Amino acid sequence: xxxxRPHRLGGTALAGQPRRVIALMVDLLLVGAEDATSKAKIxxxxxxPVAGTGGMLSVMDEHLRTQNTTARLKTAxxxxxxxxxxxxxxxxxxxxxxxxxxxx
Length: 104
Prior knowledge:
Helices cover about 45% and strands about 15% of the residues. The chain is built from four helices and four strands; from the N terminus they run E-E-H-H-E-H-E-H.
């Protein structure tokens, strides 16, 4: 079980998931969506309502691009913690310099 940290709004949030757990979750999300990994130039949208530092979004993007190089993933997420949001935003912006197809 992942450690929990107090959330500013009174609830609790996971303090971070190991990358391999996130990869498993991404694999499970793509079960039944074989068109996303096989159709040329397909566009998919993924939304993470508790984005944290954006791990799920970046792993989904990496996973989809390794399966289908012509696919485009539109990502969206939200986070109430300003520091986590800043890390997530930076993680989404930095890959733009390496991959022009990754836009925010």
